[in-house]
């Protein structure tokens, strides 16, 4: 490795850049997780965390990555052989679907082209074909991190309501929470799954479940085996500010600080900033003559943009050149998109000039890798940043 100066540009769609304030908070000495100081931290933090999910109900925190929080959502609400409906929006939806299968659930996958979100009309048809209400849960990835496509959760909810179908709605917001407008209570979501290392600006290591009333009721009769993931012992211990296991104390210090930063900026402003950065990025991509992978303007992601290269070019080579020359990491194409796309993360802790620097690196990297893109792309993005 050549020696590097300045900061590495971490522009993958998670893990994201950690603010210095959060980093410093995490560096504090670990305390007794059964002592009064810890209980105070938990009891202060939980209501602030709930506000970010847009819920007045409980949010369970696990010392786990987002994958663990996926499992918790399923095993707390479902029983062996229950029918579950998943939407193939991309790589992460596919992984959650596979997990549901491996847990012994009877899973239907609505096929997708990885360029659109979960289709409300497809949901309507599946529900219409299930008059006896055998489908117990619908799993949707809100922001598909492999494609940069954001599903319209409110419309999916409306479709369930119009069909009068009682299936639970389980939503993965790992890469949308604190980036893209999301409201657990108002949108009638039953379980919201999230993680620490994307919009929340923390290192990896915390997984979350926001739990609605219907999900809590379902948990009373759900029979899938669970122990560590069981919500109830966590909810019971949380009443007093504690956990039934050793919590990730230092990550909770970081979470406390990250939540403070989100409150200072204001959630609507956080969402607007992400939308603006996403718009500037798409403007550059279009001006470069390249394709944004997402095909429906209603579903453009505020968190990341996946850029589709013409067949003749290798997205992995572009990423390599950019890492080597400009010390910037971009997201790789995942699953069936490997080599075809690269992903620009614009979520979490960044500002206009971070994005401008990132887009400058992408433009120079494309040109060096032999993808003929005009330098007008960066200029067009700067115009959006200057005037927006
Ligand atoms: C990152 C991500 C996950 C996986 O979370 P891990 O923390 O890697 O286990 C799940 N879903 C989405 C949408 C993600 O972006």
Description:
There is one protein chain. The protein is of the alpha/beta class and 388 residues long. The chain folds into 2 domains: 9-16 and 267-387, Alpha-Beta Complex (Aspartate Aminotransferase, domain 1); 20-263, Aspartate Aminotransferase, domain 2 (3-Layer(aba) Sandwich). The protein is 42% helix and 15% strand. The protein is built from 13 helices and 14 strands. The strands form 3 sheets. The protein has a 7-stranded mixed β-sheet with strand order 2-10-9-8-5-3-4, with helices on both faces. It has a 5-stranded mixed β-sheet with strand order 1-13-14-12-11, with helices on both faces. Helix 1 (20-26) packs antiparallel against helix 9 (249-265) and helix 10 (267-287) runs antiparallel to helix 13. The longest helix is centred in the last third of the chain and has 21 residues, at 267-287. It is globular. The mean pLDDT is 98. The site of pyridoxal-5'-phosphate has 12 residues, from helix 3. Its cofactor is pyridoxal 5'-phosphate.
Give the N-to-C terminal Cα separation: 39 Å
Low-confidence stretches: none
- The number of domains is 2
How would the global form be characterised?
Answer: globular
Strand content: 15-25%
Cofactor: pyridoxal 5'-phosphate
InterPro entries: Aminotrans_V_dom, PyrdxlP-dep_Trfase, PyrdxlP-dep_Trfase_major, PyrdxlP-dep_Trfase_small, SP_NH2Trfase/AEP_transaminase
Family: Belongs to the class-V pyridoxal-phosphate-dependent aminotransferase family.
Domain Aminotransferase class V: 58-313
């Amino acid at each position: 490795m050549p020696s590097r100066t300045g900061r590495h540009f971490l522009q993958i769609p998670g893990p994201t850049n950690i603010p210095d304030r959060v980093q410093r908070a995490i560096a504090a000495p670990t305390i007794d997780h059964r002592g009064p100081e810890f209980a105070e931290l938990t009891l202060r933090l939980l209501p602030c965390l709930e506000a970010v999910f847009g819920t007045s109900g409980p949010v369970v925190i696990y010392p786990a990555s987002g994958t663990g929080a996926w499992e918790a959502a399923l095993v707390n609400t479902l029983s062996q052989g229950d029918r579950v409906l998943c939407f193939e929006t991309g790589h992460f939806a596919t992984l959650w679907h596979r997990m549901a299968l491996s847990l012994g659930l009877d899973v239907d996958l609505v096929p997708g082209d990885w360029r659109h979100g979960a289709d409300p009309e497809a949901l309507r048809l599946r529900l219409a074909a299930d008059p006896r209400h055998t489908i117990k849960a619908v799993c949707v990835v809100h922001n598909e991190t492999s494609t940069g496509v954001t599903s319209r959760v409110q419309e999916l909810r409306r479709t369930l309501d119009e069909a009068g179908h009682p299936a639970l709605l389980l939503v993965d917001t790992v890469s949308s929470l604190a980036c893209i407008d999301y409201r657990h209570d108002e949108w009638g979501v039953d379980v919201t799954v999230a993680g620490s290392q994307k919009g929340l600006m923390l290192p990896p290591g915390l997984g979350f479940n926001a739990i609605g009333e219907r999900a809590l009721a379902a948990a009373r009769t759900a029979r899938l085996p669970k122990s560590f993931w069981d919500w109830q012992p966590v909810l019971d211990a949380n009443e007093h500010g504690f956990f039934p296991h050793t919590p990730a104390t230092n990550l909770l210090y970081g979470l406390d600080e990250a939540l403070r930063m989100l409150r200072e900026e204001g959630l609507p402003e956080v969402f607007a900033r992400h939308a603006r950065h996403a718009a500037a990025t798409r403007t550059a991509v279009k001006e470069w003559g390249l394709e944004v992978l997402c095909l429906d303007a209603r579903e453009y992601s505020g968190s990341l943009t996946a850029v589709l290269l013409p067949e003749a070019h290798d997205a992995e080579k572009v990423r390599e050149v950019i890492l080597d020359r400009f010390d910037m990491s971009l997201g790789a194409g995942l699953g069936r998109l490997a080599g075809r796309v690269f992903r620009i993360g614009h979520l979490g802790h960044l500002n206009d000039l971070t994005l401008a620097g990132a887009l400058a690196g992408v433009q120079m990297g494309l040109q060096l890798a032999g993808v003929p893109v005009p330098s007008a792309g960066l200029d067009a993005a700067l115009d959006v940043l200057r005037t927006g």
